Amino acid sequence: MVLGKQGAGKGTQCVRLSHHYVVPHVSTGDMLRAAVKQGTALGLKAKDQMDRGELLGDDLIMEMVAERLGESDVRARGFVLDGCPRTVAQAERLADTLAPVDLDLVIDIEIHTGQVLRRLAARRVCVDCGANYSLSAPPLINWTCDVCGGEVVQRKDDTEEAISRRLELYERQTAPLIEWYRARHQLESVPGTGSPDAVTRRMVKVIEAKRRKGHGFV
Ligand code: ADP
């Protein structure tokens, strides 16, 4: 599971890790945005709160996550979890969902708020596959996704107001999870500064170190 404030590079790094280890990337943000786009009952319920940067209810999120973690690809290969848990209540529910196994490792990507504000203002995403771009690293052709050909746009919740609300909720609700997982000896931290490649290398290094210790990893 990967922790980190908005703009820390969580989504980008989770996609890279899921390719590197050939495991599904389970992202609550991507799942919810897909539901909004498809206009499902879940999407209709979630849209306004997401656009404002509010957190959705723990029950709704944990039901969605439990269902996804029960699917055959995840059961066969494991997963990289992105965007959940975001509250201590969610972390407790996740531990129950996963029991008798547990998360192998939680990686916190550390970054200063000043840096994420700049990144978020420049961030652009593919509406179809969620691939991340920025004003300084756009897709090759006309804001068309390099990966899937989808349209690349600014996220509705990457407005100044929604960003500051999300960061406030991160500090209040999500940051306490760092100590929560540290106390359970599941946490490693990596600096989120430097190039995306540099951050990926740091993450793979801590994963490999943990695997060598043989904590039930396959
Ligand atoms: P970010 O980390 O940039 O805020 P995400 O893409 O992870 O964005 O999530 C987008 C939105 O989806 C959140 O602002 C929130 O409204 C909702 N969401 C995603 N995951 C959760 C969660 N675990 N608990 C509550 N709400 C969530």
What does the model show?
The chain is of the alpha/beta class and 218 residues long. Helix content is 52%, strand content 12%. The protein contains ten helices and eight strands. The chain has helices at residues 10-21, 28-38, 41-52, 58-69, 72-77, 88-98, 113-122, 160-174, 176-183, 196-212, and strands at residues 2-3, 25-27, 80-82, 106-110, 123-126, 132-134, 152-153, 187-191. Strands 1-4-8 form a three-stranded parallel sheet, sandwiched between helices. The longest helix has 17 residues, at 196-212. It is globular, with a radius of gyration of 17 Å. The two termini are 16 Å apart. Bound molecules: adenosine-5'-diphosphate. Adenosine-5'-diphosphate binds at residues 6, 28-29, 32, 49-50, 53-56, 61, 83-84, 86, 90, 157, 166.
And the CATH topology? Rossmann fold
Label the CATH architecture: 3-Layer(aba) Sandwich
How many separate helices?
10
The strand order across the widest sheet is 1-4-8
- The structure class reads alpha/beta
Low-confidence stretches: none
Count of individual beta strands: 8
What is the CATH homologous superfamily assignment? Answer: P-loop containing nucleotide triphosphate hydrolases
Helix content: 40-55%
Beta percentage is 5-15%
CATH class type: Alpha Beta
Order of helices and strands: EHEHHHHEHEHEEEHHEH
Ions, cofactors, ligands: which are bound? adenosine-5'-diphosphate
Sheet of most strands: 3 strands, parallel
Number of structurally distinct domains: 1
Overall form: globular
Rg over CA atoms: 17 Å
End-to-end gap: 16 Å
The averaged pLDDT comes out at 95
